[in-house]
């Protein structure tokens, strides 16, 4: 089994949803990211998403846009992102690590180069925001050849006719973007999330994680009752923006509130 | 690369021009652009759609635009060329269209599609404001609310166009992310579109973006080349030897070139903005100074660093100031069918002033790049050859920039 599957299975056995935590690599500087990642793991994150900074993050709201600008402004290069991943893998041999970002930085040296580099750095999966299933004949193929999961996104606009295309070649988990919009803006109505998760779980055996706009422990718990995973990004990135190099302590404290909310979420149901 | 049987058969059914183009968008937008493609295909075979488009082109835009024999430009080029050299020069007068540029051709086509799809709001990005003004114009004409995304820096530099858009009833949304110019305006328009897919139509201003935009914009702009072809046959009884057009995103150039692509004797020259020079980082020449990558929904040549981070473009012409180019131009470049060269800010300024003085036409700075490309090429062309330059827009909008560059206080 892969680290991603193991992590989701362990959470499922423990009766809770997996907590998937996102931060932008190199924010505020490449040297600060390791301690922030450690704080995420310490606080109880089950899966780590490491954002690759890009000059033109078209799908991201203001919080992650600013994180990209801070990171690139601090001189973060692709080599730094890979080095951050590699040292994370050495410190945390069993915690799944996902790279999330945009097509151009991932494919500029060729999809094979990137798949090699990601595998070499101990990365378990890749989310490429602007490579939909229809254009995935290079990147997805290269990643699969190296045993790196190609994680697909489904959205409220992905109707039944599109789902088979999205699920073909999908691996790791299915990331349900709960609002038609950009990251960190608003949260979808709980009922619509529940409907969507049920629809997706009927179509795939992959775990389904839900993200976009999740900020509070209450929101996380509500989603955690129905989904296999809850993704939190902008709220963490905002803490990094506010606290900079001293972000690890507040990030750890915040993740702990989410993690315990998820641990209790399904007990309240029983 | 082997020459294809036809240069006019692109893109393929997935929107690829050779290796370029495609649909590199977030999943949220995929169903919408697939829907747009279906509606576009249906409109292509709908006589009522074509009739409405043609009627607006004639009575609202003022087409056909004239093809004009630039007699004094021809004379001047011959006088400074070696004996027997210097072509006969014609201008395609797109600057005489309603709103003063070719941009309106595409906006008419897209707003008719928006209406057909039942969309009730229009958004667009703009750099210098020309596409914003053209979009605000058609939105006013069709009574649809319209939001134009424009970089905060461009809003400062282009105050007259901002006021024009507001007069036309558009809301101008100031974009403060990134470098606050065209690229960032496009990012913000895409973000807004993702959040409002249910009721909003995005009128992209150039032959770029995800499929079907590059094909669709090209088709709407092909009226330029189709008219030119007929006008040249009428005037000269033959086709031109050389077409010249400026290329930013490339919509006026592809509109001019596409109807001629399978005429092997017609050579084509696309002029990119070389800014302060191709040897500097201050230019906007994606083909001559960039490499292939993925941005704004398509794979195409981009100005970028070795990590794939997008570089800021520079040109004195705000309409050419973009780090990418339409994907069909990338393909035409690689096949060799069209030759692309750079013209610097100062070469374009010289051509701008020359055209004002000897033809009584104030060309847009974009079109001045094409003119400068012709002026460079002319000494190598024979007297009995014919060159056709696309004067894609008028230069009234540029007089402040030109005055500033000439050191004139207004």
From TrEMBL, chain A:
Protein known as: Tryptophan synthase alpha chain
Organism: Sphingomonas zeae
Family according to the record: Belongs to the TrpA family.
Signal peptide: none
UniProt keyword list: Amino-acid biosynthesis, Aromatic amino acid biosynthesis, Lyase, Tryptophan biosynthesis
UniProt-listed InterPro entries: Aldolase_TIM, RibuloseP-bd_barrel, Trp_synthase_alpha_AS, Trp_synthase_suA
Gene (UniProt): trpA
Lineage: Bacteria, Pseudomonadati, Pseudomonadota, Alphaproteobacteria, Sphingomonadales
Swiss-Prot/TrEMBL catalytic activity: (1S,2R)-1-C-(indol-3-yl)glycerol 3-phosphate + L-serine = D-glyceraldehyde 3-phosphate + L-tryptophan + H2O
Annotated pathway: Amino-acid biosynthesis; L-tryptophan biosynthesis; L-tryptophan from chorismate: step 5/5
E.C. designation(s): 4.2.1.20
Keyword Lyase included in the entry's annotation: yes
GO terms of molecular function: tryptophan synthase activity
Active site residues of this protein: 49, 60
Function: The alpha subunit is responsible for the aldol cleavage of indoleglycerol phosphate to indole and glyceraldehyde 3-phosphate.
Pfam families, A to Z: Trp_syntA (PF00290)
Oligomeric and partner information: Tetramer of two alpha and two beta chains.
Transmembrane segments: none
Superkingdom of this protein's organism: Bacteria
One Gene Ontology CC term in the entry: cytosol
Annotated PROSITE patterns: TRP_SYNTHASE_ALPHA
TrEMBL record, chain B:
Record InterPro entries: Trp_synth_b_CS, Trp_synth_beta, Trp_synth_beta/beta-like, TrpB-like_PALP, TrpB-like_PALP_sf
Catalyzed reaction equations: (1S,2R)-1-C-(indol-3-yl)glycerol 3-phosphate + L-serine = D-glyceraldehyde 3-phosphate + L-tryptophan + H2O
UniProt cross-references to SUPFAM superfamilies, sorted A to Z: Tryptophan synthase beta subunit-like PLP-dependent enzymes
Entry's Gene Ontology cellular component terms: cytoplasm
E.C. number: 4.2.1.20
GO MF annotation list: tryptophan synthase activity
Pathway the protein contributes to: Amino-acid biosynthesis; L-tryptophan biosynthesis; L-tryptophan from chorismate: step 5/5
PROSITE patterns tied to this protein: TRP_SYNTHASE_BETA (PS00168)
Residue positions, PTM N6-(pyridoxal phosphate)lysine: 103
Cofactor: pyridoxal 5'-phosphate
Superkingdom as given in the UniProt entry: Bacteria
Ranges of residues in domain Tryptophan synthase beta chain-like PALP: 72-392
Sorted UniProt keywords: Amino-acid biosynthesis, Aromatic amino acid biosynthesis, Lyase, Pyridoxal phosphate, Tryptophan biosynthesis
Homology family: Belongs to the TrpB family.
Protein purpose: The beta subunit is responsible for the synthesis of L-tryptophan from indole and L-serine.
PANTHER family attached to this UniProt entry: TRYPTOPHAN SYNTHASE (PTHR48077:SF3), TRYPTOPHAN SYNTHASE-RELATED (PTHR48077)
Stored NCBIfam families: trpB
Record note on quaternary structure: Tetramer of two alpha and two beta chains.
Identification of the protein by name: Tryptophan synthase beta chain
Organism: Sphingomonas zeae
The encoding gene: trpB
């Amino acid at each position: 089994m892969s680290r991603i599957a193991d992590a989701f299975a362990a959470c499922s056995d423990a009766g809770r949803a997996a907590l998937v935590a996102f931060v932008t690599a190199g924010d505020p500087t490449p040297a600060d990211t390791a301690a922030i990642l450690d704080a995420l793991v310490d606080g109880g994150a089950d899966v780590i998403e490491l954002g690759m900074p890009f000059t033109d993050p078209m799908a991201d709201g203001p919080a992650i846009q600013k994180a990209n600008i801070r990171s690139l402004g601090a001189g973060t290069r692709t080599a730094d992102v890979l080095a951050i991943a590699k040292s994370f893998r050495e410190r945390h041999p069993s915690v799944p690590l996902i790279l999330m970002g945009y097509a151009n930085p991932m494919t500029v040296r060729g999809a094979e180069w990137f798949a090699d580099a990601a595998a070499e750095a101990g990365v378990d999966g890749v989310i490429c925001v602007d490579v939909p299933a229809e254009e995935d004949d290079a990147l997805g193929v290269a990643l699969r050849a190296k045993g790196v999961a190609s994680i697909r996104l489904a959205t409220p606009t992905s109707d039944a006719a599109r789902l088979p295309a999205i699920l073909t070649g999908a691996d790791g988990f299915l990331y349900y973007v709960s609002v038609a919009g950009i990251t960190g803006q608003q949260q979808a109505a709980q009922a619509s999330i529940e409907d969507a998760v049920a629809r997706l779980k009927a179509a795939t055996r992959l775990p389904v994680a839900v993200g976009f706009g999740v900020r509070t422990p209450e929101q996380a718990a509500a989603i955690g009752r129905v989904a296999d995973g809850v993704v939190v990004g902008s709220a963490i990135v905002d803490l990094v923006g506010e606290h900079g190099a001293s972000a690890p302590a507040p990030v750890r404290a915040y993740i702990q509130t989410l993690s315990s909310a998820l641990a209790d979420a399904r007990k309240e149901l029983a | 690369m082997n020459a294809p049987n036809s240069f006019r058969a692109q893109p393929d059914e997935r929107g690829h021009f050779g290796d370029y183009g495609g649909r590199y968008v977030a999943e949220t937008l995929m169903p919408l652009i697939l829907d747009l493609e279906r509606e576009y295909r249906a409109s292509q075979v709908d006589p009522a759609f074509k009739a409405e488009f043609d009627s607006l082109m004639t009575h609202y835009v003022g087409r056909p635009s004239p093809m004009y024999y630039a007699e004094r430009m021809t004379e001047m080029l011959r006088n400074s060329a070696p004996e027997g050299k210097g072509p006969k020069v014609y201008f395609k007068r797109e600057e005489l269209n309603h709103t003063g540029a070719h941009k309106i051709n595409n906006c008419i086509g897209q707003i008719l599609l928006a209406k057909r799809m039942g969309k009730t709001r229009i958004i667009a990005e703009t750099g210098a404001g020309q596409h914003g003004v053209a979009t605000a114009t058609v939105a006013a004409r069709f009574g649809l609310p319209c939001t134009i995304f424009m970089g905060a820096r461009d809003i400062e530099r282009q105050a007259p166009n901002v006021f024009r858009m507001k007069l036309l009833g558009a809301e101008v949304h100031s974009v403060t992310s990134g470098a606050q110019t065209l690229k960032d305006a496009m990012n913000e328009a895409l973000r807004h579109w993702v959040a409002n897919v249910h009721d909003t139509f995005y009128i992209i201003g150039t032959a770029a973006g995800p499929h079907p935009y590059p094909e669709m914009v090209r088709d709407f702009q092909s009226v330029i080349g189709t008219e030119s072809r007929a006008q040249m046959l009428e005037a000269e009884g033959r086709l031109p030897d050389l077409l010249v057009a400026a290329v930013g995103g490339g919509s006026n150039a592809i509109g001019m070139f596409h109807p001629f692509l399978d005429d092997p004797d017609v050579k084509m020259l696309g002029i990119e903005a070389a800014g302060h020079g191709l040897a500097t980082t201050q230019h906007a020449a994606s083909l001559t100074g960039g490499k292939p990558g993925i941005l704004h929904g398509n794979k195409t040549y981009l100005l970028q660093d070795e990590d794939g981070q997008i570089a800021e473009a520079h040109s004195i012409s705000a309409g050419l100031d973009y780090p990418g180019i339409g994907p069909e131009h990338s393909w035409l470049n690689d096949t060799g069918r069209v030759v692309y060269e750079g013209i610097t800010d100062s070469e374009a300024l010289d051509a701008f002033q020359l055209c004002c003085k000897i033809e009584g036409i104030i060309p847009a700075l974009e079109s001045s790049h094409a003119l400068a490309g012709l002026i460079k090429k002319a000494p190598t062309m024979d007297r009995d050859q014919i060159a056709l330059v696309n004067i894609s827009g008028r230069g009234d909008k540029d007089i402040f920039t030109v005055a500033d560059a000439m050191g004139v206080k207004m």
